[in-house]
Design brief:
The structure holds two protein chains of two kinds. By secondary structure, chain A is an all-alpha fold. Chain A is built from eight helices and no strands. In chain A, 40% of the residues are buried. Chain B contains eleven helices and ten strands. In chain B, a hairpin with a 2-residue loop joins strand 4 and strand 5. Chain B has two domains: 142 residues, P-loop containing nucleotide triphosphate hydrolases (Rossmann fold, 3-Layer(aba) Sandwich); 69 residues. The longest helix of chain B is centred in the C-terminal third of the chain and has 18 residues. The chains are: A mainly alpha, B alpha/beta.
Chain lengths: 202, 248
Protein backbone atom coordinates (compact mmCIF):
# COMPACT_ATOMS: atom_id res chain seq x y z
CA UNK A 1 0.00 0.00 0.00
CA UNK A 2 1.50 3.30 -1.01
CA UNK A 3 1.64 6.18 1.48
CA UNK A 4 -0.69 8.42 -0.50
CA UNK A 5 -3.42 5.74 -0.35
CA UNK A 6 -2.96 5.55 3.41
CA UNK A 7 -3.33 9.30 3.70
CA UNK A 8 -6.42 9.23 1.51
CA UNK A 9 -8.01 6.50 3.65
CA UNK A 10 -7.46 8.65 6.74
CA UNK A 11 -8.83 11.82 5.21
CA UNK A 12 -11.88 10.13 3.63
CA UNK A 13 -12.56 8.25 6.89
CA UNK A 14 -12.55 11.56 8.74
CA UNK A 15 -14.89 13.03 6.15
CA UNK A 16 -17.12 9.98 6.53
CA UNK A 17 -17.16 10.35 10.30
CA UNK A 18 -18.03 14.00 9.89
CA UNK A 19 -21.03 13.13 7.71
CA UNK A 20 -22.20 10.54 10.19
CA UNK A 21 -21.60 12.78 13.21
CA UNK A 22 -23.50 15.74 11.78
CA UNK A 23 -26.33 13.47 10.65
CA UNK A 24 -26.76 11.79 14.02
CA UNK A 25 -26.54 15.09 15.87
CA UNK A 26 -29.29 16.65 13.73
CA UNK A 27 -31.42 13.49 13.80
CA UNK A 28 -31.19 13.25 17.59
CA UNK A 29 -31.94 16.95 18.01
CA UNK A 30 -35.13 16.48 15.99
CA UNK A 31 -36.11 12.99 17.08
CA UNK A 32 -35.81 13.32 20.86
CA UNK A 33 -38.15 16.31 21.32
CA UNK A 34 -40.48 14.81 18.72
CA UNK A 35 -40.68 11.56 20.65
CA UNK A 36 -41.31 13.39 23.93
CA UNK A 37 -44.20 15.30 22.33
CA UNK A 38 -45.55 12.19 20.59
CA UNK A 39 -45.50 10.19 23.81
CA UNK A 40 -48.33 12.44 25.04
CA UNK A 41 -50.28 12.46 21.74
CA UNK A 42 -51.35 9.05 20.45
CA UNK A 43 -53.19 10.52 17.42
CA UNK A 44 -50.17 12.47 16.14
CA UNK A 45 -48.01 9.42 16.83
CA UNK A 46 -49.62 7.46 13.98
CA UNK A 47 -48.97 10.20 11.44
CA UNK A 48 -45.38 10.90 12.36
CA UNK A 49 -44.38 7.26 12.62
CA UNK A 50 -46.11 6.67 9.29
CA UNK A 51 -44.09 9.43 7.68
CA UNK A 52 -40.76 8.22 9.10
CA UNK A 53 -41.66 4.68 8.09
CA UNK A 54 -42.24 5.77 4.51
CA UNK A 55 -39.01 7.79 4.47
CA UNK A 56 -37.28 4.61 5.57
CA UNK A 57 -38.64 2.53 2.70
CA UNK A 58 -37.43 4.85 -0.08
CA UNK A 59 -34.19 3.39 -1.49
CA UNK A 60 -31.30 5.62 -0.46
CA UNK A 61 -29.98 6.20 -3.96
CA UNK A 62 -33.46 7.22 -5.11
CA UNK A 63 -33.81 9.60 -2.18
CA UNK A 64 -30.46 11.19 -2.96
CA UNK A 65 -31.54 11.58 -6.56
CA UNK A 66 -34.89 13.00 -5.55
CA UNK A 67 -33.28 15.63 -3.31
CA UNK A 68 -30.65 16.71 -5.87
CA UNK A 69 -32.84 19.19 -7.77
CA UNK A 70 -33.89 20.82 -4.51
CA UNK A 71 -30.66 21.04 -2.57
CA UNK A 72 -28.06 20.40 -5.23
CA UNK A 73 -24.97 18.26 -5.26
CA UNK A 74 -22.78 17.79 -2.24
CA UNK A 75 -22.71 17.30 1.47
CA UNK A 76 -25.97 19.10 2.31
CA UNK A 77 -28.10 16.78 0.23
CA UNK A 78 -26.40 13.77 1.76
CA UNK A 79 -26.96 15.05 5.29
CA UNK A 80 -30.66 15.75 4.65
CA UNK A 81 -31.21 12.28 3.23
CA UNK A 82 -29.19 10.50 5.91
CA UNK A 83 -31.02 12.43 8.64
CA UNK A 84 -34.38 11.27 7.27
CA UNK A 85 -33.19 7.69 7.58
CA UNK A 86 -31.77 8.16 11.06
CA UNK A 87 -34.97 9.72 12.44
CA UNK A 88 -37.10 6.61 12.60
CA UNK A 89 -34.97 4.40 14.84
CA UNK A 90 -34.38 7.24 17.30
CA UNK A 91 -38.00 8.39 17.45
CA UNK A 92 -39.30 4.86 17.69
CA UNK A 93 -36.89 3.73 20.40
CA UNK A 94 -37.32 6.87 22.48
CA UNK A 95 -41.09 6.43 22.31
CA UNK A 96 -40.80 2.78 23.26
CA UNK A 97 -38.61 3.76 26.20
CA UNK A 98 -40.96 6.46 27.49
CA UNK A 99 -44.15 4.46 26.95
CA UNK A 100 -42.49 1.41 28.49
CA UNK A 101 -42.16 3.02 31.91
CA UNK A 102 -44.12 0.96 34.43
CA UNK A 103 -47.56 2.62 34.81
CA UNK A 104 -47.32 2.07 38.57
CA UNK A 105 -44.13 4.14 38.63
CA UNK A 106 -45.73 6.94 36.63
CA UNK A 107 -48.85 6.83 38.78
CA UNK A 108 -46.96 7.01 42.04
CA UNK A 109 -44.82 9.85 40.69
CA UNK A 110 -47.98 11.80 39.91
CA UNK A 111 -49.62 10.88 43.20
CA UNK A 112 -46.58 11.95 45.21
CA UNK A 113 -46.95 15.44 43.76
CA UNK A 114 -44.44 15.52 40.92
CA UNK A 115 -45.30 17.87 38.06
CA UNK A 116 -45.50 16.45 34.50
CA UNK A 117 -42.20 18.19 33.74
CA UNK A 118 -40.51 16.62 36.76
CA UNK A 119 -41.91 13.22 35.79
CA UNK A 120 -40.50 13.62 32.28
CA UNK A 121 -37.01 14.69 33.35
CA UNK A 122 -36.57 12.71 36.54
CA UNK A 123 -38.48 9.53 35.77
CA UNK A 124 -39.44 8.90 32.15
CA UNK A 125 -36.32 10.07 30.32
CA UNK A 126 -33.79 8.46 32.70
CA UNK A 127 -35.69 5.18 32.47
CA UNK A 128 -35.83 5.50 28.67
CA UNK A 129 -32.07 6.16 28.29
CA UNK A 130 -31.06 2.58 27.44
CA UNK A 131 -33.76 2.48 24.78
CA UNK A 132 -32.74 5.91 23.43
CA UNK A 133 -29.10 4.84 23.18
CA UNK A 134 -30.20 1.64 21.44
CA UNK A 135 -32.00 3.78 18.86
CA UNK A 136 -28.93 5.99 18.39
CA UNK A 137 -26.87 2.86 17.92
CA UNK A 138 -29.08 1.48 15.18
CA UNK A 139 -29.18 4.92 13.52
CA UNK A 140 -25.40 5.34 13.68
CA UNK A 141 -24.57 1.93 12.29
CA UNK A 142 -27.06 2.28 9.42
CA UNK A 143 -25.84 5.79 8.67
CA UNK A 144 -22.21 4.65 8.46
CA UNK A 145 -23.27 2.14 5.82
CA UNK A 146 -25.67 4.37 3.91
CA UNK A 147 -23.23 7.28 3.91
CA UNK A 148 -20.98 5.37 1.52
CA UNK A 149 -23.62 5.91 -1.15
CA UNK A 150 -23.41 9.68 -0.56
CA UNK A 151 -20.22 9.71 -2.65
CA UNK A 152 -22.39 9.23 -5.74
CA UNK A 153 -23.76 12.72 -5.23
CA UNK A 154 -20.40 14.24 -4.44
CA UNK A 155 -20.61 14.27 -0.66
CA UNK A 156 -17.27 12.55 -0.20
CA UNK A 157 -16.50 10.03 2.50
CA UNK A 158 -15.36 6.45 2.12
CA UNK A 159 -17.86 5.94 -0.69
CA UNK A 160 -15.40 7.79 -2.94
CA UNK A 161 -13.27 4.65 -2.92
CA UNK A 162 -16.27 2.53 -3.81
CA UNK A 163 -17.29 4.76 -6.71
CA UNK A 164 -13.71 4.67 -8.01
CA UNK A 165 -13.37 0.93 -7.39
CA UNK A 166 -16.52 0.11 -9.28
CA UNK A 167 -15.76 2.46 -12.17
CA UNK A 168 -12.17 1.25 -12.58
CA UNK A 169 -12.66 -2.38 -11.52
CA UNK A 170 -10.05 -1.66 -8.83
CA UNK A 171 -10.21 -4.22 -6.04
CA UNK A 172 -7.77 -2.34 -3.86
CA UNK A 173 -9.90 0.82 -3.99
CA UNK A 174 -13.03 -1.20 -3.16
CA UNK A 175 -11.36 -2.68 -0.10
CA UNK A 176 -9.91 0.70 0.91
CA UNK A 177 -13.50 1.96 1.10
CA UNK A 178 -15.29 -1.11 2.40
CA UNK A 179 -12.94 -2.21 5.16
CA UNK A 180 -12.69 1.09 7.08
CA UNK A 181 -16.46 1.56 6.75
CA UNK A 182 -17.11 -1.90 8.14
CA UNK A 183 -14.59 -1.35 10.94
CA UNK A 184 -16.22 1.98 11.75
CA UNK A 185 -19.67 0.39 11.90
CA UNK A 186 -18.45 -2.41 14.17
CA UNK A 187 -16.63 0.02 16.46
CA UNK A 188 -19.69 2.28 16.71
CA UNK A 189 -21.89 -0.71 17.45
CA UNK A 190 -19.61 -2.00 20.20
CA UNK A 191 -18.99 1.42 21.68
CA UNK A 192 -22.63 2.39 21.84
CA UNK A 193 -23.60 -0.99 23.18
CA UNK A 194 -21.11 -0.45 25.97
CA UNK A 195 -22.62 2.95 26.73
CA UNK A 196 -26.09 1.43 26.64
CA UNK A 197 -25.07 -1.14 29.27
CA UNK A 198 -23.41 1.54 31.40
CA UNK A 199 -26.49 3.73 31.37
CA UNK A 200 -29.02 0.98 32.06
CA UNK A 201 -30.67 1.67 35.42
CA UNK A 202 -28.86 -0.33 38.06
CA UNK B 1 -61.04 21.56 63.86
CA UNK B 2 -62.48 20.31 60.53
CA UNK B 3 -62.11 16.62 59.62
CA UNK B 4 -59.03 15.76 57.54
CA UNK B 5 -61.21 14.52 54.71
CA UNK B 6 -64.85 15.01 53.84
CA UNK B 7 -66.48 13.38 50.85
CA UNK B 8 -69.98 14.61 50.09
CA UNK B 9 -72.42 13.11 47.60
CA UNK B 10 -69.56 12.07 45.34
CA UNK B 11 -70.37 10.31 42.08
CA UNK B 12 -68.02 9.23 39.36
CA UNK B 13 -68.65 8.01 35.85
CA UNK B 14 -66.01 6.59 33.55
CA UNK B 15 -66.95 6.19 29.90
CA UNK B 16 -70.65 6.65 30.72
CA UNK B 17 -70.58 3.84 33.28
CA UNK B 18 -71.30 4.82 36.89
CA UNK B 19 -68.40 3.71 39.09
CA UNK B 20 -69.26 5.58 42.29
CA UNK B 21 -72.77 6.57 43.44
CA UNK B 22 -73.46 9.29 46.01
CA UNK B 23 -70.60 8.56 48.39
CA UNK B 24 -70.62 10.35 51.76
CA UNK B 25 -67.64 9.70 53.99
CA UNK B 26 -65.76 11.66 56.63
CA UNK B 27 -62.31 10.79 57.93
CA UNK B 28 -61.30 12.34 61.25
CA UNK B 29 -57.75 12.86 62.42
CA UNK B 30 -56.10 9.67 63.69
CA UNK B 31 -58.58 7.32 62.06
CA UNK B 32 -57.83 4.43 59.75
CA UNK B 33 -60.83 4.10 57.50
CA UNK B 34 -60.69 0.91 55.45
CA UNK B 35 -62.57 0.80 52.14
CA UNK B 36 -63.63 -2.81 51.83
CA UNK B 37 -65.15 -4.20 48.67
CA UNK B 38 -64.79 -6.88 46.06
CA UNK B 39 -63.04 -6.28 42.71
CA UNK B 40 -64.96 -3.73 40.67
CA UNK B 41 -66.75 -2.26 43.68
CA UNK B 42 -65.15 1.13 43.02
CA UNK B 43 -62.90 1.25 46.09
CA UNK B 44 -59.71 2.08 44.19
CA UNK B 45 -61.55 4.67 42.11
CA UNK B 46 -62.83 6.28 45.30
CA UNK B 47 -59.27 6.46 46.66
CA UNK B 48 -58.05 8.02 43.40
CA UNK B 49 -60.73 10.68 43.40
CA UNK B 50 -59.35 11.82 46.74
CA UNK B 51 -55.92 12.73 45.32
CA UNK B 52 -57.37 13.76 41.98
CA UNK B 53 -55.93 10.94 39.88
CA UNK B 54 -59.52 10.25 38.82
CA UNK B 55 -61.87 13.24 38.39
CA UNK B 56 -65.22 13.06 40.14
CA UNK B 57 -68.34 13.66 38.04
CA UNK B 58 -70.26 15.40 40.83
CA UNK B 59 -70.11 15.97 44.55
CA UNK B 60 -67.46 17.53 46.73
CA UNK B 61 -64.22 16.55 48.40
CA UNK B 62 -62.79 18.70 51.18
CA UNK B 63 -59.25 18.12 52.39
CA UNK B 64 -58.08 19.84 55.59
CA UNK B 65 -61.23 21.92 55.53
CA UNK B 66 -60.67 23.23 52.02
CA UNK B 67 -62.48 22.17 48.85
CA UNK B 68 -60.27 20.03 46.60
CA UNK B 69 -61.16 22.37 43.73
CA UNK B 70 -59.47 25.23 45.60
CA UNK B 71 -56.28 23.25 46.14
CA UNK B 72 -53.39 23.26 43.72
CA UNK B 73 -53.37 19.55 42.75
CA UNK B 74 -49.60 19.19 43.10
CA UNK B 75 -49.50 20.89 46.51
CA UNK B 76 -52.43 18.80 47.74
CA UNK B 77 -50.86 15.52 46.62
CA UNK B 78 -47.67 16.35 48.50
CA UNK B 79 -49.80 16.41 51.65
CA UNK B 80 -51.20 12.95 50.90
CA UNK B 81 -48.88 9.94 51.10
CA UNK B 82 -49.69 7.27 48.53
CA UNK B 83 -48.83 3.59 48.73
CA UNK B 84 -49.85 1.14 46.02
CA UNK B 85 -49.52 -2.57 45.46
CA UNK B 86 -45.89 -3.42 44.53
CA UNK B 87 -44.92 0.04 45.87
CA UNK B 88 -44.26 1.70 42.48
CA UNK B 89 -40.74 2.65 43.58
CA UNK B 90 -38.52 4.39 41.03
CA UNK B 91 -36.26 1.57 39.80
CA UNK B 92 -33.40 3.93 38.86
CA UNK B 93 -33.21 5.54 42.30
CA UNK B 94 -31.72 4.18 45.52
CA UNK B 95 -33.88 3.55 48.56
CA UNK B 96 -32.58 6.83 49.98
CA UNK B 97 -33.54 8.83 46.87
CA UNK B 98 -36.97 7.19 46.74
CA UNK B 99 -37.79 7.98 50.36
CA UNK B 100 -36.44 11.52 50.08
CA UNK B 101 -38.65 12.30 47.07
CA UNK B 102 -41.33 14.50 48.60
CA UNK B 103 -38.99 16.33 51.03
CA UNK B 104 -36.77 17.15 48.04
CA UNK B 105 -39.77 18.30 46.00
CA UNK B 106 -40.60 20.54 48.97
CA UNK B 107 -37.02 21.91 48.76
CA UNK B 108 -35.77 20.72 52.14
CA UNK B 109 -32.06 21.16 52.90
CA UNK B 110 -30.10 18.04 51.84
CA UNK B 111 -28.94 17.40 55.42
CA UNK B 112 -32.52 17.53 56.66
CA UNK B 113 -33.63 15.13 53.91
CA UNK B 114 -30.85 12.70 54.82
CA UNK B 115 -31.79 12.81 58.50
CA UNK B 116 -35.45 12.29 57.64
CA UNK B 117 -34.64 9.28 55.43
CA UNK B 118 -32.63 7.75 58.26
CA UNK B 119 -35.49 8.20 60.73
CA UNK B 120 -38.03 6.76 58.30
CA UNK B 121 -35.93 3.70 57.49
CA UNK B 122 -35.72 3.00 61.21
CA UNK B 123 -39.46 3.59 61.58
CA UNK B 124 -40.26 0.92 58.99
CA UNK B 125 -37.69 -1.49 60.41
CA UNK B 126 -34.97 -1.35 57.75
CA UNK B 127 -31.46 -0.63 59.16
CA UNK B 128 -30.36 2.54 57.28
CA UNK B 129 -26.71 1.46 56.98
CA UNK B 130 -27.73 -1.69 55.18
CA UNK B 131 -30.53 -0.39 52.99
CA UNK B 132 -29.93 3.28 52.21
CA UNK B 133 -27.89 2.70 49.04
CA UNK B 134 -29.75 -0.29 47.65
CA UNK B 135 -31.87 -0.20 44.53
CA UNK B 136 -35.47 -1.48 44.53
CA UNK B 137 -34.50 -4.60 42.57
CA UNK B 138 -32.15 -5.53 45.42
CA UNK B 139 -35.07 -5.73 47.86
CA UNK B 140 -37.64 -8.40 48.64
CA UNK B 141 -41.32 -7.66 48.07
CA UNK B 142 -41.85 -6.92 51.75
CA UNK B 143 -38.83 -4.63 51.93
CA UNK B 144 -39.98 -2.76 48.82
CA UNK B 145 -43.35 -2.21 50.44
CA UNK B 146 -41.68 -0.91 53.63
CA UNK B 147 -39.73 1.54 51.48
CA UNK B 148 -43.00 2.46 49.76
CA UNK B 149 -44.54 3.27 53.15
CA UNK B 150 -41.45 5.22 54.22
CA UNK B 151 -41.64 7.21 50.98
CA UNK B 152 -45.31 7.99 51.61
CA UNK B 153 -44.41 9.23 55.12
CA UNK B 154 -41.62 11.35 53.58
CA UNK B 155 -42.69 14.90 54.35
CA UNK B 156 -45.01 13.87 57.19
CA UNK B 157 -48.30 14.26 55.27
CA UNK B 158 -51.55 14.61 57.26
CA UNK B 159 -53.26 11.86 55.23
CA UNK B 160 -52.02 8.53 53.90
CA UNK B 161 -53.72 6.71 51.04
CA UNK B 162 -53.15 2.97 50.72
CA UNK B 163 -54.28 1.00 47.67
CA UNK B 164 -54.11 -2.71 48.55
CA UNK B 165 -50.50 -2.28 49.65
CA UNK B 166 -50.05 -5.80 50.98
CA UNK B 167 -52.13 -7.73 48.44
CA UNK B 168 -49.21 -9.25 46.52
CA UNK B 169 -47.17 -10.26 49.57
CA UNK B 170 -46.95 -13.78 50.98
CA UNK B 171 -49.22 -14.30 54.02
CA UNK B 172 -46.39 -14.21 56.56
CA UNK B 173 -44.83 -11.00 55.25
CA UNK B 174 -48.30 -9.53 54.91
CA UNK B 175 -49.04 -10.25 58.56
CA UNK B 176 -45.69 -8.72 59.62
CA UNK B 177 -46.45 -5.56 57.69
CA UNK B 178 -49.98 -5.39 59.08
CA UNK B 179 -48.56 -5.59 62.63
CA UNK B 180 -46.08 -2.91 61.73
CA UNK B 181 -48.87 -0.76 60.34
CA UNK B 182 -50.59 -0.95 63.74
CA UNK B 183 -47.33 -0.09 65.55
CA UNK B 184 -46.82 2.80 63.18
CA UNK B 185 -50.26 4.13 63.91
CA UNK B 186 -49.49 4.12 67.64
CA UNK B 187 -46.15 5.89 67.16
CA UNK B 188 -46.80 8.39 64.37
CA UNK B 189 -50.56 8.85 64.85
CA UNK B 190 -51.38 9.02 61.16
CA UNK B 191 -54.72 9.33 59.45
CA UNK B 192 -55.21 6.78 56.71
CA UNK B 193 -57.64 5.74 54.01
CA UNK B 194 -56.91 2.13 53.19
CA UNK B 195 -58.31 0.08 50.31
CA UNK B 196 -58.49 -3.70 50.57
CA UNK B 197 -60.56 -6.69 49.49
CA UNK B 198 -59.29 -8.70 52.46
CA UNK B 199 -61.90 -8.68 55.22
CA UNK B 200 -59.39 -10.05 57.73
CA UNK B 201 -57.09 -7.12 56.99
CA UNK B 202 -60.00 -4.69 57.30
CA UNK B 203 -61.01 -6.09 60.71
CA UNK B 204 -57.41 -5.98 61.94
CA UNK B 205 -56.43 -2.49 60.79
CA UNK B 206 -59.57 -0.38 60.65
CA UNK B 207 -60.91 2.01 63.20
CA UNK B 208 -63.90 2.16 60.86
CA UNK B 209 -64.77 0.04 57.85
CA UNK B 210 -66.58 1.48 54.83
CA UNK B 211 -68.13 -1.35 52.82
CA UNK B 212 -68.53 -0.60 49.12
CA UNK B 213 -70.87 -2.50 46.87
CA UNK B 214 -71.40 -1.65 43.20
CA UNK B 215 -70.04 1.85 43.75
CA UNK B 216 -72.24 2.70 46.73
CA UNK B 217 -71.45 2.64 50.43
CA UNK B 218 -73.41 -0.13 52.07
CA UNK B 219 -72.21 0.45 55.61
CA UNK B 220 -69.71 2.56 57.54
CA UNK B 221 -69.04 1.17 60.99
CA UNK B 222 -66.39 0.08 63.49
CA UNK B 223 -65.16 -3.52 63.10
CA UNK B 224 -67.27 -4.86 66.01
CA UNK B 225 -70.36 -3.11 64.66
CA UNK B 226 -69.61 -4.55 61.22
CA UNK B 227 -69.51 -8.07 62.60
CA UNK B 228 -72.95 -7.49 64.09
CA UNK B 229 -74.44 -5.55 61.18
CA UNK B 230 -74.87 -8.47 58.80
CA UNK B 231 -75.68 -6.47 55.67
CA UNK B 232 -75.58 -8.57 52.47
CA UNK B 233 -72.03 -7.63 51.47
CA UNK B 234 -70.69 -7.97 55.03
CA UNK B 235 -72.34 -11.38 55.24
CA UNK B 236 -70.74 -12.41 51.94
CA UNK B 237 -67.31 -11.32 53.18
CA UNK B 238 -67.71 -13.07 56.52
CA UNK B 239 -68.90 -16.25 54.79
CA UNK B 240 -65.65 -16.28 52.79
CA UNK B 241 -63.78 -16.18 56.11
CA UNK B 242 -65.74 -19.04 57.66
CA UNK B 243 -65.30 -21.22 54.60
CA UNK B 244 -61.55 -20.72 54.57
CA UNK B 245 -61.56 -21.62 58.29
CA UNK B 246 -63.45 -24.82 57.64
CA UNK B 247 -61.17 -25.85 54.78
CA UNK B 248 -58.21 -25.83 57.15
Amino acid sequence: MNPSLGAEIVSLSLQHLRLVGITIAIAAALALPAAVVLARRPAARRWVLGFTNIAQTVPSLALFGFLLPFIGIGEHTAIVALTLYALLPIVRNTLTGILGVDPAVRESALAMGMTPRQILWQVELPLAVPSIVAGMRIATVTTIGTATIAAFIGAGGLGVFLVRGIAMMDKQALLAGALPAAAMALAADEGLEWIERKLSPA
Amino acid sequence: MPPILEIRDLSCELGGRPILRHIDLTVEEGETVVLLGRSGSGKTTLLKTVNGLVPASSGEIRFEGRAAADWDAVAMRRRMGYVIQDAGLFPHWTVEANIGLVPRLAKWEPARVAARVETLLETVGLPPGEFRHRYPRQLSGGQRQRVGIARALGADPPLLLFDEPFASLDPITRYELQRQFLDLRRTVRKTALFVTHDVREALLLATRIAVLRDGALELVATPPECLKARTPEVRAFLASLEDSGRAN
